[in-house]
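Inputs:
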Amino acid sequence: MSSAINFIRRIPEGEDRERLTCADCGFVAYENPKIVTGSVVVADGKVMLCRRAIEPRRGFWTIPAGYMEMGETIEEAARREAREEACADIAIEGMLAVYSIARIGQVQVLFRARLASPGFAAGAESLEVRLFDWDEIPWDELAFPSVHWVLHAWRDAGAGPLGAPRGNPPDDPRGVRRLGQGA
Amino acid sequence: MSSAINFIRRIPEGEDRERLTCADCGFVAYENPKIVTGSVVVADGKVMLCRRAIEPRRGFWTIPAGYMEMGETIEEAARREAREEACADIAIEGMLAVYSIARIGQVQVLFRARLASPGFAAGAESLEVRLFDWDEIPWDELAFPSVHWVLHAWRDAGAGPLGAPRGNPPDDPRGVRRLGQGA
Ligand SMILES: [Zn+2]
Ligand SMILES: [Zn+2]
């Protein structure tokens, strides 16, 4: 049943900060940052983008990415997301970037990958999946600032072995801007 | 109050896998992987280790590290952990490693850092904090396999600019071994 859930903010015993706590049973809903992982998937020099079929940002373009699940490694999660969103079987080449989005409690670990076997298609959460040349990327229709960031990180890295991963850009070092605020 | 909490595993509407759900009120306790961050803090060529005052692995040595909190960037979390566990003010130099510990649902993002101002001391969660030369590191008394891994990653990287971060070692690519199983 879905009776009202009565969460309040209070400081659990032995801790030093407020947590969301169920007033009825004492369950503490720790709000931890979540890990998003995904990939810039490259094929014939083009990058794969998925047009989102779900909110938030339905209709906008993103890389195949999503929340890591329990029991996965981070690379397994990135491969699963490519499979789910783009019906794509990818091989991860290395890490492009690690971004903190402090506004919403996310860490994004984003890889460079290639198609491990040919073919892709829109998965359940995508309206369409396409490969784009750099000059064709729909910059004004990207879903999130970090998609913009990581596409530039990929472009800047070139095609060779990857070095140190990028962090947040200097104009948003904590990941607190919303789209339309100069991201 | 702390009456019994009645969580069961069931598949929430619109999802495809079981989640821990409160049988009384329907609250879904999403079990997400958690982000641990920490640093190999280097001073005069020595590395800082903290002897844990808390379980698990009380009495064993670790780097200053812990769970990232909401509202932080990952670098802020690493600096906070050094402050809390070693009363140390650190400057992060770059990323040494990103490890997946699939057995317990962790991603560990581990940095190389130096002391930004002199001095350190045992924080509330540490019995003692010391700097160790490589040959003095208490290998048999390290708290976790990943401490072993990252100390080697630091040693292998040398003192210069950091390249691509290390991932899990080949003998535990998913992070599923326990200590004593050849970690
Ligand atoms: Zn409850
Ligand atoms: Zn409940």
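Strands of chain A lie at 7-10, 19-22, 28-29, 34-43, 46-52, 61-62, 65-67, 90-101, 106-115, 126-132. Flag for discussion at group meeting.
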